[in-house]
Write a sequence for this structure.
């Protein structure tokens, strides 16, 4: 598999950084990893850092949208950050920016989402 998921927690915040290719070969692994992490704490605030992605197809979009729906149903929030140029084209065409916040960096996302909790 050509994908790694690195996760870190800061309170309710879960930062998940993806490195590699998010496609039909890796989608189930990413889905399972993120679901397990989200299930550890209801109301998770997930920041999905896509900066390490070299490629993403419609399976990757499905993973992202599915995690968004799951987190929202548990009272959490989700954003994506650090979207590479090639992946951004897929994100824009799919309209993800209309569904969730898209930030330039994970740090910006964390700062903005923390500010929204105040």
């Amino acid at each position: 598999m050509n994908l790694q998921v690195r996760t870190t927690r800061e309170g309710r915040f879960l930062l998940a950084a993806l490195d590699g290719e998010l496609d039909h070969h890796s989608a189930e692994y990413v889905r399972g990893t993120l679901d397990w992490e989200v299930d550890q704490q209801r109301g998770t605030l997930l920041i999905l850092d896509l900066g390490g992605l070299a490629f993403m197809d419609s399976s990757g979009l499905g993973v992202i949208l599915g995690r968004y729906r799951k987190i929202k149903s548990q009272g959490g929030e989700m954003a994506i950050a650090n979207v590479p140029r090639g992946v951004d084209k897929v994100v824009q065409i799919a309209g993800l920016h209309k569904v969730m916040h898209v930030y330039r960096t994970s740090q910006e996302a964390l700062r903005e989402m923390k500010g929204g909790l105040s």
